Amino acid sequence: MSKTIMIVDDSASLRQVVHIALAGAGYEVVEACDGKDGLDKLDGRKIHLIISDVNMPNMDGITFVKAVKQLPNYKFTPIIMLTTEAQEDRKREGQMAGAKAWVVKPFQPEQMLNAVARLVLP
Amino acid sequence: MNLEKAKQTFIDEANELLLAFEDDLLRIESAPDPERPEIINSLFRAAHTIKGSAGLFGFDYIVSFTHVLESVLDKVREGGLTLDAELISLLLNCRDYVGNLIDALESGIEIDPARDADRELLLVRLQVQLKQGIGDPATVAGTPVVATTVVSVASPEPQEATATREADTVASDHWHLSLRFGPDVLRNGMDPLSFIRYLGTLGRIVYLTTLYDGLPPASQMDPESCYLGFEIEFDSAVDKQTIENVFEFVRDDSTVRIIPPHSKLAEYISLIGSLPEDQRRLGEILLQGGALTYFELEEVLRIQRAEQQVDKHAARPLGAILVEENVVPPQAVLAALEKQKQSDERKSNEHRFIKVEAAKLDSLINLVGELVIAGAAANLLATRSHSPELIEATTSIAELVERIRDGALTMRMVHIAETFNRFPRVVRDVSRELGKQIELSIGGGETELDKSMVEKLGDPLMHIVRNAIDHGIEPEAERLKMGKPVEGKLSLTAFHESGSIVIEVSDDGGGINRARVLAKALQKGLVPPDLVLSDREILNLIFEPGFSTAEQVTNLSGRGVGMDVVKRSIEQLRGEIELESEEGLGTLVRIRLPLTLAIIDGFQVVIGRSTFVIPLDLVIECLDLQTDSELLQPRYLNLRGEVLPYVRLRDLFDIEAPPPARENVVVVQYGNARAGLVVDQLLGEFQAVIKPLGQLFRGIKGIGGSTILGTGEVALILDVPQLIQLASAGERAELTRHLPRHLSVARS
Question: In what residue span(s) does the Response regulatory domain sit (chain A) (predicted)?
């Protein structure tokens, strides 16, 4: 059974590219457009990994990660934060919230796959 | 009890111990077996004692070094290490190093152990010895050599098993990964297994041991915490950084050690060896060589900073931390340190000197001289050919030749300090002999002049200095009477001044008594009784052969070598000597020497059909000779309101060709005196290789030497100082005597 990954980002194009890349590597993908949408979709289904952006409308990434860590079913789910080089502080904040892995934007699909593979193999 | 005194005792004691240490080391190789243990014991005790006493004084940098030295010796004593030739020479190096530390202590030099490459190298080499151990592999893991509290990778496994494996790792050709996951990794959603699986995509996991010693009893176990560690044999072609990146997300709260396979080690060492040789830090070299990753470097630097905060001097050098924490294999650290040392040495070598036989240098300069002449000939031919390419080529060759010439000439240049430095001793001896107190000051020792000149300058200078002490500076009683300080002042100064080097010897003695000089000269028949002499002429009488004013000929200056000999030897160097003296205040002897003896930049001028060369350094400007108002008198012209004496070279050298419609004046300066030289035509700059005049022509006034032009013709080099003298009024009498006919022409 293939592993399921949730991608949370307000950019539809980014979601799509990541979706295609991950699907191509053999993962199932669930898309969410912001933190709130992400939380709604954590509805009991098995999610093996969450990829989340930091800056999003409605609910930002940090708040989202903190909320995920409170959910009994999902608190051990690895989370990859999407950060930018300049956001060293945000990265630290994300790590404090519980997202220990990160990928620096902009990234190539290949880099994303490498980061994901370290945490969850398809 | 005084601490300074105790410190001295420590220094003496340490020096004694170090001496014994060296003796023991030299003795032990040939010592019969039964005696060896005692010698080793004595070596150990020496290191131990130095460490102990240094600790009392708080010389932590000595303590931390001798501690490691002591550990090695302890191991030798226990039989864990054989004292072979290699170890002996290492120990000798350590001895020398400790000796340096003690010397520095004695002379009060501050030592910064963190910047000491020698120290680091020695420490690493000692660490290697400690780690090696024959038949005792258990020492490899765990037990850090210096007791420290930093992260230790000590395996929780029985030591021997790890040790065997670690020994294998370097022997077998696999990476060895030592992973200790932090307790929180699971809570962070990081699954150790997924990392190991991912690692599997980069190569082959040959062997994996799970270390579960950290597991608490089941009742106390927290199911959300990770207690596991892994030892992995990994076969892969990727580099260290790539492997480390696998663990990027858990790097912060886990311990990851990556030990390269043997073949990698060789690669690191050769990579390190081939790095460019600029000065670099140890970490940078290892990083470039691939033996160290950024993260590891940062971590190790953090450890070092922490140690420095605890105790600045006891902090381990980077290399030692890298080895002790198993971050980088000692062989790679050694290679990097060697590299660093090489770069350092290369750097310091740049300022070192090589000795060259003077004759070789002379022949080089002769050849350069020939090259200059040949170059001039080629230049001339090129100009005649009117081929732009050829002219361009010869011009650039000429430029290069000029630079080679300058380079070759500067090679012969030495600091005059070489000569000056003899004088403090001389002054001390002479003044003691004469019972005078003299303070010598030396200035401008860095002024450069031709080596051959320096050699020939020694004797005349010595004579002038002795004269100054003997005749110049008055006896103490007289000085006191004059209201001068008891201590006489003598100074030696050198400096450059418009194309020449000036050396001044001055004293604050009694000066020269003109009346006495004149009386003496009259008595010796050096001057006719009715002649009126200028002040300068009276002073210059001192340089006349057979003149000596000292009523009492002393052992020092009255050796039959008068100032005339001094003058002659200076003139042989194409130099001049002059005196300034104020009665009661002191005397100054000024020697003026040309910069070089062999090749000069010359300025070519033409009179009639002959070419002459004026040393370019002495040329101030060139102008047209006005025939009317500016000629104040036949012998002077008006140079922007100044009176400038001039010499018409056509007349002086009796050149019969008719003068051109317009003549030129070259204004020359030597010292403070200026004069104009009237010539027909100006040709411009030219490099002149000075060839001495034959014996027959030595006496000719106004000519200093000869040179060969590009055409092969001979040109005479003008002796500017003499020409200036001829031009100035003071020399009128002499001029008349030597050249009555031309002078009268000039006057008419």
Answer: 4-120
Residues of B in contact with A98 (CB under 8 A): 188-189
Architecture of the domain made up of B599-747: Beta Barrel (2.40)
The span from the CA of B502 to the CA of A116, in Å, is 80
Question: Mean pLDDT across the stretch A33-43?
Answer: 90
Closest approach of A81 to chain B, Cα-based (Å): 11
Q: Is the pLDDT of residue B107 over 60?
A: yes
Q: Which CATH superfamily is domain B3-111 in?
A: HPT domain (1.20.120.160)
Residue B206 clears pLDDT 60, i.e. is over it: yes
How far is the C-alpha of B688 from the C-alpha of B706, rounded, in Å?
A: 9
Residue B166 has a pLDDT of 43
Q: Where are the domains of chain B?
A: 3-111, 358-412, 415-594, 599-747
Q: Is the pLDDT of residue B135 over 50?
A: no
Does B222 touch chain A if contact means CB atoms closer than 8 Å?
A: no
* Percent of the residues in chain B that have a pLDDT greater than 70, as a whole number: 83
Amino acid (one-letter) located at A66: K
Instruction: Establish, for the pair of chains A and B, how many residue pairs have beta carbons separated by less than 8 Å.
Output: 46
CA angle in degrees (0–180, nearest 5) for B636-B642-B646: 25
Q: Could you say which of B190, B224, B246 has the minimum Cβ distance to residue A100?
A: B190
Q: Which residue of A has its CA nearest to B190?
A: A78
Does residue B556 register a pLDDT over 60? no
The minimum CA-CA distance between A45 and chain B, rounded to whole Å, is 17
Classify residue B202 as exposed, middle or buried by CB count within 10 Å of its CB (0-12, 13-18, 19+).
middle
Domains, chain A, with CATH or none:
4-119 (3.40.50.2300)
- Given this chain, do its domains B415-594 and B599-747 carry the same CATH topology? no
Measure the CA–CA gap between B530 and B154, rounded to whole angstroms: 107
pLDDT in tens, B267-304: 777 777 666 665 567 777 777 777 777 777 777 788 88
Cα(B227)–Cα(B216) distance, rounded to whole angstroms? Answer: 8
Residue-wise pLDDT tens digits, B210-242: 887 778 888 888 888 888 888 888 888 888 888
pLDDT computed for residue B142 by the predictor: 36
User: Tell me, what's the ipTM?
Assistant: 0.75
Q: Which residue of B has its CA nearest to A70?
A: B187
Element (H, E) at B679: strand B673-679
Tokens 């000029």, residue?
B402
Q: What is the pLDDT of residue B138?
A: 38
**B201 with A117: Cβ contact below 8 A:** yes
Alpha helices in B274-324 (DSSP H): 282-289, 294-310, 318-324
- Output phi, psi for B607, to 5 deg: -130, 120
For B246, counting Cβ atoms within 10 Å of its Cβ (0-12 exposed, 13-18 middle, 19+ buried), the class is: buried
Which residues of chain B make contact with A76, given a CB cutoff of 8 A? Answer: 186-187, 189, 224
- Chain B, 241 to 260: residues with Cβ < 8 Å from chain A are 246, 248-250, 252
The predicted-structure confidence for B172-201, as pLDDT tens digits, reads as follows 577 888 888 888 888 888 888 888 888 888
Whether A25 has its CB under 8 Å from any CB of chain B: the answer is: no
- In 3D space, the residue among A56, A52, A59 whose CA is nearest the CA of residue A99 turns out to be A52
- Distance between alpha carbon B275 and the CA centroid of its chain, in Å? 26
Q: Do A78 and B195 touch (CB under 8 A)?
A: no
CATH number (2.60.40.1190, 3.30.565.10, 3.40.190.10, 1.10.1740.10) of B415-594 reads 3.30.565.10
Tens of pLDDT, residue by residue over B401-431, are: 888 887 887 787 888 887 888 888 888 888 8
C-alpha distance from A33 to closest chain B C-alpha (Å): 22
In B191-220, the residues whose Cβ lies within 8 Å of chain A are: 191, 194-195, 197-198, 201
